[in-house]
Design brief:
By secondary structure, the chain is α/β, with parallel strands linked by helices. The chain is 34% helix and 22% strand. It is built from eleven helices and 16 strands. α1 (35-52) runs parallel beside α10 (300-318), α2 packs parallel to α3 and α4 (143-154) crosses α5 (169-182). Keywords: Amino-acid transport, Signal, Transport.
């Protein structure tokens, strides 16, 4: 049966919630460099709620009303909007944001109002680590899951690695987790390079990386951790790192960004999602419906948004429609739920969703606009020792 989203369920009003409404706030950075991520997240969230409610957009007869807020990549604004959502707009649960910096600013607000913030897709480890509180859950993968899966993919005998990352929580947490994960492999991390988030000229950083890698014999890799624009891989590749025996490496990304990966056939890494990889009924519905509605396959953050939407519905279903925070926490700790990636569950200790990642190898086809990350192997949760960083 074809299920269609209804604009009637997306509200922007600030009137108090009616007794038969469950208000969900979606705070995302729909203005700025992560706009594409935010748009995907919103589409996925609504599709997830739709799928999990079988199109009714209701729990126990109560309408689920999703309110959108634009945090504009500003931590101060994200904090203020979450306070508005909980304090003035009577949201029972909030989902978001896109940026790790914005998310970190929002965490204390959830604790202050004693309401659930379901983080999706912000990645920094500290969100469910050092800055965590018991009102925070996360369906999105964290930096450790990114890092450990990429370390499994790249950490082979004789490999020497340098990293390039953005100089803020996402980049630094990502490299820290990657460094820690590599310690359990035969590979060596020999240099770390951090640049501002809006960098477009990578010449100086690349020269430092090239010089550092040339000091070591072995299979030289430059592993890039990046979000948003700037195209560091393409710009550095234009400097011909192969003359120094250096190959590029990175994790997965959204399909428009994967177009740049066409210059790197055979490149390996690990990814959170690619629409052709998971084989399960949720993903089958998801891909079919997204293709029918939007004419494109679902992307990286659409899948994450859908996982969040499903998690919200399953949590509310477990409480019989109650939005009492303590009941929600009790229901969500250890809760297992099906997503486009297969089963996820919230680890009770830090509320991080445990989930599979995917080791890929890039293949290029003339009639596909982006590089195709062929599955090498599924990296299941039991293969990744994800640290509990809030203790």
């Amino acid at each position: 049966m074809k299920l269609l989203l209804s604009a009637a369920f997306v509200a922007l009003a600030t009137a108090p919630a009616l007794a038969d409404e469950i208000r969900i706030a979606h705070i995302h950075d729909s203005t700025g460099a992560l706009e594409a991520y935010a748009e995907q997240s919103q589409i996925g969230l609504m599709m997830g709620i739709e799928y999990a409610t079988e199109g009714t957009m209701q729990i126990e007869g109560n309408d689920i009303v999703v309110t959108e807020y634009d945090s504009q990549l500003r931590p101060d604004l994200g904090r203020a909007l979450l306070a508005q959502a909980f304090g003035d707009d009577d949201a029972a649960i909030a989902v978001g944001p896109t940026s790790s910096g914005v998310a970190l600013a929002m965490l204390p607000v959830a604790e202050e109002y004693e309401r659930i913030l379901l983080v999706e897709p912000a990645v920094a480890d500290s969100i469910t680590g050092s800055d965590w509180n018991r009102y925070i859950f996360r369906t999105g993968r964290n930096s450790s899951q990114d890092a450990i899966s990429n370390a499994i993919a790249l950490g082979q005998e004789g490999v020497v690695i340098a990293t390039l990352a953005q100089d803020y929580a996402f980049g630094r947490d990502g490299v820290a987790a990657f460094r820690e994960a590599l310690e359990g492999t035969p590979a060596q991390l020999v240099h770390e390079e951090y640049v501002p988030t809006d960098t477009t000229d990578f010449t100086a950083a690349a020269e430092r990386i090239f010089n550092a890698l040339q000091e070591h014999e072995g299979d030289r890799r430059l592993f890039v951790i990046w979000a948003g624009g700037g195209n560091p891989m393409g710009r550095i590749q234009a400097m011909d790192p192969s003359r120094f025996g250096i190959q590029m490496a990175t994790g997965g990304n959204i399909l428009p960004a994967m177009a740049a990966y066409r210059d790197f056939p055979g490149m390996e890494g690990a990814t959170y999602y690619y629409y052709e990889i998971p084989q399960n009924p949720v993903n089958q519905w998801f891909v079919e419906q997204h293709m029918e509605r939007y004419g494109t396959p679902p992307d990286f953050f659409t899948a994450g948004g859908m996982a969040a939407g499903i998690a919200v519905v399953e949590a509310l279903r477990a409480t019989g429609g109650s939005t009492d925070t303590e009941e929600l926490i009790a229901a969500m700790e250890g809760m297992r739920f099906e997503t486009p990636k297969g089963e996820m569950w919230f680890r009770p200790e830090d509320h991080q969703a445990m989930q599979s990642m995917y080791h890929f190898r890039i293949r290029v086809e003339d009639d596909v606009d982006w590089a195709i990350p062929d599955l090498v192997r599924e990296i299941t949760p039991d293969m990744m020792d994800i640290p509990i960083r809030n203790q």
